[in-house]
Amino acid sequence: MKYGFGIDLGGTTVKIAYFDETGTMLDKWEIPTNTAQGGQQILPDIAASIRQYITSHGIADSDILGLGIGVPGPVNAKGMVNKCVNLGWGVFNISETLSGLTGFPVKAGNDANVAALGEFWKGGGQGCDNMVFVTLGTGVGGGIVVEGNLLHGAHGSGAEIGHLVLNPKETVPCNCGKFGCAEQYCSATGIVRLAREFLKTTSLPSTLGQVENLTCKDVFDAAKAGDPAAVAILEQVYDYMGMLLGNVCSTVNPEVVVIGGGVSKAGEVLLEGIAPYFQKYVFHAASGARFALASLGNDAGAYGAFKLALDAFG
Amino acid sequence: MKYGFGIDLGGTTVKIAYFDETGTMLDKWEIPTNTAQGGQQILPDIAASIRQYITSHGIADSDILGLGIGVPGPVNAKGMVNKCVNLGWGVFNISETLSGLTGFPVKAGNDANVAALGEFWKGGGQGCDNMVFVTLGTGVGGGIVVEGNLLHGAHGSGAEIGHLVLNPKETVPCNCGKFGCAEQYCSATGIVRLAREFLKTTSLPSTLGQVENLTCKDVFDAAKAGDPAAVAILEQVYDYMGMLLGNVCSTVNPEVVVIGGGVSKAGEVLLEGIAPYFQKYVFHAASGARFALASLGNDAGAYGAFKLALDAFG
After folding, report:
1. Are residues A198 and A177 in the same domain?
2. Do B164 and A247 touch (CB under 8 A)?
3. ipTM of the complex
4. Contact A250 B74 (CB under 8 A)
């Protein structure tokens, strides 16, 4: 039996997990992400933590097949990082650098793409060959698996589906500088924004008007309780989500769409809400895609990172 | 040296080409597509034509690596055809059937996808790993290459980018039954429709009002001559094309976008027209995609079909 590590590198913590080659997570821990001085200590810290784990557990180097790592920024299939603003990183080959520091072969990918691979392998996308993954959180991220392989993209920014433009007439800019991106309507932040705008002009009765610091969860809870304005707000949101996922599925034609991120905590009601709008927008030949909720939570990135290594070196 | 055949199966003719393994097209010819009786003679006709060619040219069966075929409908990676309305075909495995008829291994793909592979290999996409191909003709078709491999999709309908919805408020239905598909604005037919609508209401002077049976070429010609209405119409068209290709590139992140089909005969002016709108819509990390015109014309399908066979059996 061989073993390996899956690393999910975030802006504040690094999640590291130890796997056997069947994909069983045997252990996991976190270390802080040291972004001081252009993030130059991040990879040495990771290498030291892994080396310490191996030594303290009496693991032979020859039993380690390799490491995989998910990075919060664009990474191409060859491991070239193209600026991770959160970490202070510029352009360099992370696979070569981390491999030099640890002595193990390393495969890297973008964090959202790597989480997609985790869900594909051990989560909501199990048993499929082609998957679209979308995370509806503070922002909207994505990952695409084509015949078992992650779509990295030429510049390491494949599947940036949060920035598909759905509404070219939007007057408020997205964080990315464009206007009318999916993220402006389908993220937790976007849903709250749509709700606030709707409540300003609607004559529908609503309990939401009295809520201070309105959250996405408030909107879902109110809709569940039958609040007419909340129901109408979510119909707008589902329409945008259906257009986003319909267009992505007309492009990719997956077997399954897996939805994760904080908004997906709404559960099955979210999938049921999106379904009719998805059918309105998707091309008929791609309309058979099944919808599923993500099931690995915060571990998706570590699973996917290890899978990258397993596919490359296992 | 090994050899093979690339077959481009259309609704009226079948184009067959003979290649050596370097991709040099040594010969090509056409036979009619016999769509009578549910298209049951189509594959026997193709097999007979290839068999006759081999015999009359004294080619040894052992020198043939295989056949590739592009089909006007959904085909998945395993060769399952899922209804080709134009041909009268239902659901069956075309690779197995044609292989049984010829004695050679067969690989099949959707015609637009296969044409994309041809352009990727020997046309406008040469030298790249990731490509988006779009044909702007009577309709709008597409093909996507990810790290050298065609994106077939789970149901054989990958890259149906002509049916991405760009304008959910459209009141005229697309041929597919949905509203606001890219094909309604970016195809030759769509451009003429936009022109007619624009001319009804504009106060801009135009020579186009007098043109009987207005064509897409008329609009491009008038714009080249400085006709203010034609220029304004094409700005609308370029905006839609920029939104389509921007959204597809934010999803796929290719190195190159190759544009073919009748509308691409407008030439470089088309690429220059789309460029600023593409930048308006595409996610910044995917904005480096280069634009190129397709260069293989009607032979793209045969090249791509042979490449399918070469990749599988060469």
Report:
1. yes
2. yes
3. 0.92
4. no
